[in-house]
Amino acid sequence: MAKLPVLFILSCLIIGAATAKRQLPINPRNDLAARLGAEGGMIECWNALLELRSCTNEIILFFFNGETSLGVGCCTAIRIITRQCWPTMLTSLGFTVREGEILSGYCDASPVPQPV
Q1: What is the pLDDT of residues 8-17, one digit of tens each?
Q2: What is the pLDDT of residues 41-89, one digit of tens each?
Q3: Model-level pTM greater than 0.70?
């Protein structure tokens, strides 16, 4: 009978220790504000993704008709997505790996516009 209170107290201590609040070190690389505001950060990636969405017709014509006239904005978005954000994003949007490589290759061969 005396073992029951001791066992109960030990159980409470173990559960308390297991669920105790602890301070986790903050890694500056994991700071959300820094990641969102940094050059090449998430905001730039999302903007490039929206730009890519707006040039879907150009990309479809590029593959369907063999028309080789992707706009500057479209190529800029492709460069940002494949180089700075998510290299496999084009495949997750429905393009095959080969189509992603073709788009990247075309845009890499196109002249990059210089900022004014």
Answers
A1: 666 656 765 5
A2: 678 888 888 888 888 888 888 888 876 688 888 999 888 888 888 777 7
A3: no
Judge whether 90 and 99 are in contact, CB under 8 Å: yes
Give the residue carrying structure tokens 């014509």: 61
The residue type at 98:
R
Q: CA separation (Å) from 39 to 32, 44, 84, 85?
A: 13, 7, 10, 11
How far is it, in rounded angstroms, from Cα 109 to Cα 105? 6
Which residue intervals of the chain are DSSP H helices?
A: 3-18, 32-37, 42-54, 56-64, 72-80, 89-92, 97-109
Q: 81 by DSSP, 3-state: which?
A: helix
| Overall residue count recorded for the chain in this entry | 116
